[in-house]
């Protein structure tokens, strides 16, 4: 089965960090801390997060009909 990158239900804001953590099979807290470091080191993390939140799809397994 091919892995795909989706937003996670484990969300604090939009589920981007949780989705990245699920994709790489790591703790979401680590991804969130790295994302904060990117934001504080130059601000490009905010733009990257917004783009990822728009581009990434919700996980189809999590969508309830």
From TrEMBL:
User: Can you cite an annotated GO cellular component?
Assistant: plasma membrane
Q: What UniProt keywords apply to this chain's record, in alphabetical order?
A: Cell membrane, Membrane, Transmembrane, Transmembrane helix
Question: Which ranges does the record mark as transmembrane?
Answer: 33-56
Which coarse location class applies to the principal site listed for this UniProt protein? membrane
Q: Name one Pfam family in it.
A: PspC
Q: Which InterPro entries match?
A: Phageshock_PspC_N, PspC
Ranges of residues in domain Phage shock protein PspC N-terminal: 3-58
Keyword Cell membrane among record annotations: yes
Compartments reported by the entry: Cell membrane
Q: What kind of membrane protein is this, topologically?
A: Single-pass membrane protein
Q: What is this protein called?
A: Phage shock protein C (PspC) family protein
């Amino acid at each position: 089965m091919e892995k795909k990158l989706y937003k996670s239900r484990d969300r604090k804001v939009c589920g981007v960090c949780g989705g990245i953590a699920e994709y790489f099979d790591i703790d979401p807290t680590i991804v969130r801390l790295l994302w904060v470091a990117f934001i504080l080191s130059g601000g490009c993390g905010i733009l990257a997060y917004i783009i990822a939140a728009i581009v990434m799809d919700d996980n189809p397994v999590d969508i309830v009909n």
